[in-house]
Every structure is written in structure tokens, then in C-alpha cells.
From TrEMBL:
Segments traversing the membrane: 59-81, 93-113, 125-149, 156-174
Source species: Leucothrix pacifica
Endpoints of the signal sequence: none
A Pfam family of this chain: YdjM
Keyword field: Hydrolase, Membrane, Transmembrane, Transmembrane helix
Source species, domain of life: Bacteria
GO molecular function terms noted in the UniProt entry: hydrolase activity
Name assigned to this protein: Metal-dependent hydrolase
């Protein structure tokens, strides 16, 4: 999730503990600790662009790292804030642990993938029920955190938690409806999907990107779900990556070949050769519009590269303003245009 939402989660859950008169202090310490795991973005390499991808949402997001991460935060925040505010180290540590602990679980609710059980497993958990930015999560919670702190009343904290429970429950329900709609769309094509995933589009839980795979291809569609009939936007398909077919010139022992497998792991296997740039491998899970196969990131290979040379990593954003306008029309739509 975005840093604001991560901080808000750390703050509101920290506010459940301690004295009511300290709700503002709990919010500040919980918010800082709630954002701290994303300091893993500092782990990067000039020569290996995939290192940053491997270590983002890695050990710092693991459930097993929470007590350590909370301790590191409290060792910093106690002398800076806790001691000055007359708090005990134990109280500071408790708020730090709570704030730090919310981070990985919240990230697990998105589609990006979070290693919650590292070092026991390198599985990237992605429950796909919330967008990485969703104002209906962050804004109400922030408002109630501030009210709780200003009025020294914990009832606003409980209001925030009730809102989150309701919103995430609704999102889970719509996610399941999007999955069901995806199977219906696949059946119309005569397909029996091997896997089926639904991911919320940007900043909402109404329009979903549905991805399924057959033996040879990936199919992408968009669907608007509610408690009425779903609305579909048929998307596109793309062949699964086949190294022998797509990159016959690639040395399978080269660093570039190893980097493709690292990128495959990062992308949950959802990778393909770019239709327009044949030396490019793309992550098809993300696009500005949910029915498109128009990647936001991927890797570029170089045919004459040395055996030990890494791939190049690219990101593309396109015309985000135009895409948001189209997405807003999809959210409002009662039928596809």
C-alpha cells in the first residue's frame, strides 16, 4: 500500500492500546513504525536492477520479523519521542510492534506479493482484495485517527476499525464475485482455466482485472461487479513465455536467463514476450486499464550481452490522466461502451 495508508494503519491499531489521553502519541509512534518496513527500498544495486524487486516486501515484511522490527523502531523512537513524552520504553515498544506488524499484513491484501513467512518460505502472498492506493481506505481512517487524538476518545478508533472490517469484507465479497464472473467469461470462450485471478483496478473495488491461464495463453478481461449483473469489457490474450520459442538465441546458462527466472518468480509466473518489442519480457498483471495487456514494467534483454550481464529493468506509466478518466467511466458504466 501507499505510505499514507501504511502509516494510518499503524496509527489506528496502535491507538487501541494505552491511555486515552495518549492517543495522539500512539498515533505518531504507530504511524512511523507502520511505514518503517518500506525502508527496504534502500536495498538496491546499480549493476543488478532486480535486486530491489527481490528485497522489497522481503524480510522486513515477514511476520517473524515483527518483534525485531518493532524493537529497532523503538530503539530509535524512544529517545527521540517516547522519553520526551514521558512514556515507558515498554509502551513505546508495544506501539512500535503493533504499527510495524500491520504493514506486511496490509501489503498481503494487495496484488504485488509479500513474503509473510520468510525465511520459512519465499512464497509471495497476494490476496488481491484491495488496490495499492484506495482513498476509501485511507481518508476515513485518517479522519477518525485525528478525531480520536483531538478528543482523546477511543470510540473513534473503534469506528475506524469497524469501517475497515466492513470495507475489507465488502472487497472480499466483490473479489469472489469477480472470480465467478471470470469463470463465466472463460466458459463463453470454451475454456477451462488452469488458474483464475481477479485484481482490483486502481483506487477502487468496483472494476476488477480478471486474468486466467489456459495451457498456452493468458487471457485478460475487466469486469464491474456489484450485487447486480456484472458488466464485462473483453480484453486480450497473449501466449505464455516460452524461452525456446521466444528467445532461441538466449544462452540458458547466462545471467539474462537467470534474471528471467527471477522475474518470473517476482511476477507470480505471469510473464510473456512483448508483442511489440520481441526482446522484452513483461509482467501482464498490471496495466493502467484493467482490460489491457499494456505493462507497467518488465525487463529488456540484449542479444549480444556478455554472459554475466544483467537484464535492463524498465517502467512505463503512459498517459495516466487519460486512463483514470476512462476508468472512472467504467466505474459508472451500466454496460460496456
Amino acid at each position: 500500500m501507499d505510505p499514507v495508508t501504511q502509516g494510518a494503519f499503524g496509527a489506528v491499531f496502535a491507538q487501541t492500546q494505552g491511555r486515552s489521553k495518549d492517543l495522539a502519541k500512539a498515533a505518531v509512534i504507530g504511524a512511523i513504525a507502520g511505514m518503517a518496513p518500506d525502508l527496504d527500498v534502500l536495498i538496491r544495486s546499480d549493476s543488478d536492477p532486480l535486486l530491489a524487486l527481490e528485497f522489497h516486501r522481503h524480510f522486513s515484511h515477514s511476520l517473524l520479523f515483527i518483534p525485531i522490527g518493532g524493537l529497532l523502531c523503538s530503539l530509535l523512537l524512544y529517545p527521540l519521542l517516547g522519553k520526551r513524552w514521558g512514556l515507558s520504553f515498554l509502551q513505546t515498544y508495544l506501539w512500535c510492534v503493533i504499527g510495524f506488524g500491520t504493514h506486511g499484513l496490509l501489503d498481503g491484501c494487495t496484488s504485488y506479493g509479500t513474503q509473510l513467512l520468510w525465511p520459512l518460505s519465499d512464497h509471495r502472498f497476494a490476496w488481491d482484495i484491495i488496490s495499492i492506493i484506495d482513498p476509501l481506505v485511507s481518508i476515513p481512517v485518517l479522519a477518525l485517527i485525528i478525531l480520536a487524538a483531538r478528543r482523546k476518545a477511543r470510540k473513534y478508533v473503534y469506528f475506524a476499525l469497524a469501517w475497515l472490517a466492513m470495507y475489507f469484507g465488502l472487497s472480499y465479497t466483490l473479489h469472489e464475485r469477480a472470480i465467478e464472473a471470470g469463470y463465466q467469461q472463460a466458459a463463453l470462450r470454451g475454456h477451462t482455466p488452469i488458474t483464475m485471478e481477479a485484481k482490483p483496478s486502481f483506487a477502487n473495488i468496483v472494476v476488477w482485472k480478471v486474468i486466467y491461464q489456459t495451457e498456452k495463453d493468458y487471457y485478460v478481461d475487466a469486469v464491474k461487479v456489484s450485487f447486480a449483473e456484472p458488466v464485462y469489457w473483453q480484453g486480450d490474450s497473449i501466449p505464455k513465455l516460452d524461452l525456446d520459442r521466444d528467445f532461441p538465441w538466449l544462452d540458458k546458462q547466462s545471467q539474462q536467463a537467470k534474471d528471467i527466472e527471477r522475474f518470473r518468480w517476482f511476477s507470480g509466473g505471469y510473464i510473456s514476450q512483448d508483442k511489440h518489442k520481441p526482446d522484452r519480457v513483461i509482467d501482464i498483471r498490471y496495466s493502467l486499464l484493467p482490460q489491457e495487456i499494456n505493462p507497467l514494467w518488465g525487463i529488456d534483454l540484449t542479444r549480444d550481452a556478455a554472459a554475466d550481464k544483467h537484464i535492463e529493468y524498465f517502467t512505463e506509466r503512459g498517459d495516466s490522466r487519460e486512463a483514470i478518466g476512462k476508468l472512472w467511466k467504467m466505474i459508472q458504466a451500466t454496460k460496456p461502451e
